[in-house]
Amino acid sequence: MEKLSGKDKELIRDSWESLGKNKVPHGIVMFTRLFELDPALLTLFNYKTNCGVVPECLSSPEFLEHVTKVMVVIDAAVNHLDDLDSLADFLLNLGRKHQAVGVKTQSFAVVGEALLYMLQCSLGTGYTAALRQAWLNMYTIVVAAMSRGWAKNGEHKSN
Ligand code: HEM
């Protein structure tokens, strides 16, 4: 996997220190933005509760669990910045699972945009161009690994 610079790591760690302690509220800001950017993604959350409607979806326990899951993956990445390779198998498998539930790889990029939006809202003036780029670099590494798993699952199905 790609490597991050020392400066990238410092910017990511410092900014995540307080955000990571409040994962769900920040995750909700992120997913609210995600559904503004692509409302069709709501239909992929086929929980028993009505996830065709944004407010109902955002307050359903299963959905909030997924929000937490996403934030935990981000937390894991931030905690393994020196060794992102150790997450490769996990992320590959995660990509496979998302292929199986109908998520497209392009949608991972929209999640990235929503992540940056959440960082901007939360960090205010701390959201500098260098910080934005550092997070983008990390997220790109995560998504590249997930996308490899996604593609492998797709291949497997068409065989
Ligand atoms: C458009 C984007 C996404 C959609 C529509 C989506 C949807 C889903 C769905 C339907 C599931 C299965 C049900 C569930 O566990 O809640 C799932 C599982 C999961 N998702 Fe996502 N997801 C998206 C992006 C992401 C991203 C970017 C991450 C992490 C960086 C992530 C992390 C997870 C995790 C950890 C699971 C549990 C996998 C397991 O059961 O082992 N998701 N996702």
UniProtKB/TrEMBL annotation:
Catalytic activity: Fe(III)-heme b-[protein] + nitric oxide + H2O = Fe(II)-heme b-[protein] + nitrite + 2 H(+)
Full protein name: Nitrite reductase
Gene3D superfamilies xref list: Globins
Family annotation (PANTHER family): BLR2807 PROTEIN, NEUROGLOBIN
Family per similarity comment: Belongs to the globin family.
Domain called Globin: residue spans: 3-151
InterPro entries: Globin, Globin-like_OT, Globin-like_sf, Globin/Proto
Keyword presence, Chaperone: no
Transmembrane segments: none
